Sequence to fold (446 residues):
Amino acid sequence: MALTGVQIYKFLPKTNCKECGFPTCLSFAMKLAQRATELGACPYVSDEAKSNLEAASRPPVRLVTVGVGEKKIEVGNEVVLFRHEKTFVHPAGLVLRVKDSDADAVAKAKEAAAYSVERVGINMYLDGIAIENDSKDAAKFAKLAADVKAATDVALILMSSDTAAMKAALEKVGEDKPLIYAATADNADAMIELAKKYSCPLAVYGNGLQEVADLTEQAAKAGVEDLVIDPATRGYADSLDALTQIRRLAIKKSFVALGYPVITFPGEGAESIDDEAMLAGMHIAKYASIIVLDNFSPAVAYPLLTARLNIYTDPQKPIQMAAGVYPLGDPKADSVLCVTTNFSLTYFSIAGELENSGYPSHLLVCDTEGLSVLTAWAAGKFDAEKIAKAVKEFKLPDTLSHKKIILPGGVAVLKGDLEDELPDWEILVGPREAMAIGSYLKQNWS
Fold:
């Protein structure tokens, strides 16, 4: 039974050190009772207290790891319904399914696993390969599992209802801790034993939430707690309803039997590749943890990866660059000097356009706490004083052979104030949009 905040407080050190992020131990205890934080946030809690508070400190959605090494997939460990309340912690894993009846399965897996794209300084890629025993042949299934393992370095999901086929595949790749998919009402005992033998996470497939809950309870009693659940919903409305119910029951009602990551298959409920992509996008937002795609192309992968990045970025901590001077295109002492804020999207937008302009450039990035140009200016975090301070801090008067700096066009109002702060400098006002910087430099820089 869940403990109250007052009951939890009795086990805490009562130092009110604030290192957990809360003003008092009592407020921390109240948040822990609400599952809005984790016991590990307290640096001074004793081992005895940890043991007594194990149930209270368990996250509403269990953390489950699929795979090993740098490319393992970690999902779950979520404590909120909405990202603005705290933030979502572990991004949904995007996985491509290949079938052992397909002669090109290894090539498809290799292509998907090799795909990567950079956005705002972050390298994005697909997280794993799901291998389906479509042929119903255990030997083919095991061989494809071994071949995909040899050809890729991503996490694996093994998909078969045949326990003999699953065992054959696990003998080849079990040490890589693949996700076993799936235990059902018909094969649960055998699949649970395989998960225990190979120490692998186990997916359970149930026709409805009650059957899913029964299966997770059965697995947990048998000693398998690293579980992923599939509520067998595939369409837009039914999957949105089921995934939302699962998250609400886990977080709001502390219903442990559904407190696990969810796996979805948007391709099974889609009529086309575009439909699959839209359904996958919905699953990323609400509330899938592993999404298995049936089709791969960069045109589909990139928007899904971007949507995931946006949803799983902490809204209270924008992705930002370190303040400093960034060289673009091997600039010299007489090269272009532009200034911008340290919001990563702003930086990469202007940096990319400067690199494509053909003008080697110095890009001065001011620390605006991750805010974009207009937002930072409106908040008083990007002004003439800050820009002038950055110019001097990074010794630009000593490293450049000129004294010209280009302001973003959206803050042209700063020109006069910056001339007062840097009286020896020529202050230029650039274009409002980054894409216009190339034509601007052709007309205004010599």
Observations:
- The domain at 64-311 is CATH 3.20.20.20 (TIM Barrel).
- The first helix runs from residue 5 to 9.
- Residues 188 and 277 are 31 Å apart (CA to CA).
- The two ends are 73 Å apart (CA to CA).
